Amino acid sequence: MGILEEEQPRKARPHEIGQDLSLLSVADLEERIGLLRAEIARIEVELKAKGSTKQAAEALFRRI
Description:
It is a single chain. The chain has helices at residues 3-7, 26-63. By secondary structure, the chain is mostly helical. The protein has a domain at 24-64.
């Protein structure tokens, strides 16, 4: 392994549901929590958008 290889930062592996967490450091675990919270927020925004679309469609079909 050369000097350049040692200086390169590790690539973060994506979180997998159910994976063994015992090998991760505290910093890794905190980073994963942040990533998962951001993903939850993104999913909630999409869910609200789909809910609004569904309500609009239901309202339209009730009028017909």
